[in-house]
User: Fold this.
Amino acid sequence: MSAVQQRLQQDQPQPFLTAMSGAVTQVSVVTTNGTAGRFGVTVSAFTSVSADPPLVLVCINRRSPVVKAIEENGCFCVNLLDDRQSTVADCFSGRSDPLTAYDFSCANWRLEATGSPCLDQANANFDCTIENAYDAGTHRIFIGEVQDAQTSGRAPLAFSRRSYQALSPLNLE
Assistant:
């Protein structure tokens, strides 16, 4: 075992979490709706998996009731937030004062083909059915087959160094 692995193993999870705080991630709210109920949760672990077929990946802590709801409903929507929607991110992460945590009334939603709530005026939306799911550490990884994707062209809401960030293009001239 390398010295780095030994240090990470001894001090887990603080060095790992501190190092990961420097990563820049797109803030998204993953939603689902169906027989198991209507749920949503803010996540930062989202990525494209494949363009053909169109697949995306999200990771959600297995303690979240959203995991069971997604599995039972068989669908989810990844709503990439724009840089003016940090209150939506706070609401679905449980940090919503003065709003009610996990309350869909914090924004305007529409139902997509799968029945999942899709956030109006988001940076982008990916309406998905479950392709596959895996456990990894504390999280459940969902691979979703994209049934529909939309984009508004709005600026993305990012998260880095434990705070929301707005991205701007570099002037390389």
